[in-house]
Fold these 2 entries.
Entry 1:
Amino acid sequence: MKFYQLQPEQRRKLLQDEGLELEDIDDQVLKRLDELSENVIGQLRLPLGVVQNLIIDGQKYMVPMATEEPSVVAAANHGASIFVKNGGVSTVSHRDGIYGQIVLKVDEQFSLANLKDEFSNLVDLANQKFASLVGHGGGTRSISARQQGNLVYLKVLVDPAEAMGANKTNSILEFLSAKLGQLDHVEEKLFAILSNYPSQLTKGEVKIDPATIGGEKVAERIVLLSQIGYEDPYRAVTNNKGIMNGVDAVLIATGNDYRAIENATAVLANQDGQYRSLSKWTMKDDKLVGELTLPMAIGVVGGSIKARRDVQQSFAILGKDITSKVLGEIITSIGLANNLAALLAISTVGIQAGHMKLQARNVVAELKATKEEKKTVLNRMIQEKNYSESHAKDILEKLREEK
Ligand code: MEV
């Protein structure tokens, strides 16, 4: 039998026999995970944290975040607590659907105008075939096309309702491309697949009283940093990484496809041919105004969302009736919160002060010491502002000598 055909426990046994040490895993968990992916031999766990109080459009949310990076959840909480003092985040969402692409190879007699005449009929046929999606409030919305030489690029807009919609869109595209392939002067269908081009856009905006972040000077520094992020790709990519720290953590916690969102945001950041910050901070009427627009092709159903208990726990934290629109608004707001916290740290005490304290926790966690000893070591590392592993070991040694 091939490795992939084995039961997960057989795969584990094989690897263990070869001398690999594997972490223990519950049988039932292993079986469930094997249904989600391939060649499964174990699991990888991430800490799940929460942002306790995120106010969006007057509603309060608790937000789950899964990340291994110290300070990401702390930064999101810090940003969100500043938003609370300033009336929260206002959001606008445009959830028209996600794009699908079909590319056809055509001959010289092909007429684009004749093809376009078929579009409304094709949309109807797709909606009849995928009636359950229509029943959920979604459906195929439109088809458009352009021709370049002997290639025709079709763009299909599919509203996936509450799902991210990748599978459904691909099925619709394959259905449509089979019909298109039968048309006169179409030589062949080259491919039919969804496009991760930015769609389902959500904008978050905050208006901050400078007094709530340390005064006008701090606000001005944030505006300047934002301008630098607009002009300079070296800063822009780091600014955007800070945003994605928060965004990815919620995407992962909610079982969403963070690779799709990562790549779509990269397109947004590069819109005018230069890579720029996704966020913008300006002064308007004595307020620091922060804006962030993100592509939020995400879902609250579909994929493995219902099948994963860890993900269902995240939805329980968010509130069971959360829609994909609201989840997109939450994720965008978290991105803005992480961005503000990072800009604040950079423009005041510097990032390392907070980061290293949190990093010290990882160092201390690795020590072979009691809970009490670890607590004392951590406190001393913070007091002495020395966060290295060797210093942690020195402190522990001294501590034991003192006793
Ligand atoms: C670190 O993970 C993220 C930051 O570098 C983001 C930023 O510089 O804006 C702090």
Note: The chain has a mean pLDDT of 95.
Entry 2:
Amino acid sequence: MRLDVVTIFPEYLEPLNVSLVGKARTTGLLDVHVHDLRDWTYDRHNTVDDTPYGGGPGMVMKTGPWGDALDTVLADGYDTGAHAPALIVPTPSGMPFTQELAVELSERPWLIFTPARYEGIDRRVTEEYATRVPVYEVSIGDYVLAGGEAAVLVVTEAVARLLPGVLGNADSHRDDSFAPGDMADLLEGPVYTKPPLWRGRDIPEVLLSGHHGKIARWRRDEALKRTARNRPDLIERTDPKSFDKKDRETLSILGWAPGPEGSEGRPSGRFWRRPPAVEE
Ligand code: J9Q
């Protein structure tokens, strides 16, 4: 897979040289090109933004540098044999970045990222390139970043680990929280390893029992508890038919009642639980 990133902060993309993505590059599974948008400015101050038409706060990134940069990157990629590019534009107004989207992007041969400052890029740029290549406007979550670079790191890591040959164990995605199609969309429960006693804390006895049925049931209940607490939306969107009798019993202890069509109704309370206060 080829990745291009066009940014005013090329040094922000240094993490692409390390860890899983860095390894995928050195093993030839990923071909990453980071470009400085200011290479496509021709004025004394390397201007990449200007005030918004219609007024308002902040600055908007200009058409000229983005258009020239993307034309160059596209031409270079095609020249070197790349094909079927997609443009990935991180923006808080984009579609949610999910594991499903990570899988879709991992199946494409060439991704071009255009992280912008918060107020974004002149709309005509995305409109123009959308006539030539698929454009994905993507949000990694409902919070405010200063720019799209951190989102590029998130998306590239999620995508790179799905590429055939990138993870040591080809099977090891399957059980992760959010791997599509497994475990009925629950979060993972807690995990433990040696030593069995640490600072007076032992591990749940069932995990030492060797009783595989009991262990599976315990893990399922822990997953239900954690999901009900942290992501009640995941419980609500789960097809009630995928909950077994013991699941329903556990959920009812957690305050979940069957709804009208057998759907699960969530316990009332408008806010997620915050971590308990501790004496500091
Ligand atoms: C570019 N806040 O936020 C959430 N996903 C992406 C973003 C974002 C941002 C500012 C600039 C992307």
Note: Strands lie at 2-7, 31-36, 49-50, 60-61, 85-96, 110-113, 135-139, 257-258, 264-265.
